[in-house]
């Protein structure tokens, strides 16, 4: 029985079992769509983007297409940016469920749905009742039109647009009628009237965005006795994420917003009951709509080959998941001799070329939505050229002139270069001098990457690739250069040391720091004391930020540590302290983002905007220019709104800048205070030159 305890035999057996079951899982997942045997209760009427379904008897999610049947016990899920319309029919009774993005339901029957997360709209017709369950809460609909959403705290909000809905929970039953809403949480039901009526933007509107921000106009109808309306805009249907509030005595307001999905509603005090009422919420999206740009190939790029032409891979950045693109390749600049065209929404296309020559490519962007005009990219040219000899390999990593922390480089010192089927092997040479007289490493390989087995030291290194041709001889690449230096400091970005912030409405604060190693693992620690004896949060992430749930307003301390894959400490940041309070507003600078590059070509202003949680009386915005390691103030203003457009662009030049933002507010005693400024560093790029305006009025006047 010794073979049962032999480590080599046991490990081999486990590996074989793992490969066997992995193969079975792969064959099962790729065996085609799963039809299921449960009763069909409806169908997918319409969809946008990807809609996923998991059968009751399966563990794998599959994508649904329009008109696909929906079965009893199916779980339906929408991803970010996607929407689904489900139709359930039972005789003369029909029910339609419209699922918003990031939502999930479990289909119990033609008249019974389990609502798991997200938000949805339900419309019922006929004499039957549609029942929507969530935990111990049951919502029964007849011939009615309702909207249901669930927030992060598992509370449910119900809005009835037409008809009525009966709500039953552990606290009893209630009827919610037309133009009423109900909040359901912890078994309690609170019903409110919806006498406030919104006009625009209408629900499910898409608005094109041609700049960083756009002033969006909100309109609503007057309400008897309501003197002041409060406009609320948020990123989620529960009105908790990125909440903006604005009071208005009229029937419209304008708010500058950036790219993204938003929900909006009105609030006002009923003069008869003295209670606050809300309108129904509506959703709209701002979609970036600027000229598309091909990122690959680059303009005037040359593709050389010796035998057969290589395929050309086109890439571009997509604006929105529902935006459509058409790629066109032509032999002439006027695109009258098109040799290739394709439709793609993925941002990628591949053209199998057949001959050499000069070609032109452009991208056409369009949308089926109203108000979105067709846009064309700049035309790029590229050349396919047959050569007698192969082009030398291009060095990819390390980058030319790159400075790398030596402790990081020792862990992941991979070298890579371009491959070509004209080469049968490659030799990597590394030297301490540009003439390669002092070679410290040299090795051959059939791959286009290698991790040298070398004891690295601080200093400057040079490297090149010698490629052996399939026929005879070899060809060398250009020389690359990189420098190994001590690991850079780990700098904490937000919240700043000594800052005072408003406590976030949802209790979650986003911590940010610089990463000296982009691929490293960082341990974030948050504590109530500077010695980190009473930690409130600890996590390890591979990014430069993490959202932390804070227990409540108070003093906090935090620090970040860079770890090796084995868990050893490479470097740590100093600890930083900050304070949150209920009276101070929570200000979050949105744009320009930290380390952004802002191109001011063809722009009339430099836009700043931010988000606020809590109440503030004004904001202090300051723009500074980095001039020879010192910051020089360009302007400093007190602003009432939550955005500002700086139009004196002739005063700016290419370079590094910083903007600072603080809020003025009144504390619990009524005293006026100012929060510590939050900073964001960014860079200005100018393709055009801005000049000071020229005064045309004569300098001298002659009066008779």
UniProtKB/TrEMBL annotation:
Domain of life where this protein originates: Bacteria
Protein name: Transcriptional regulator
Species for this entry: Leptospira sarikeiensis
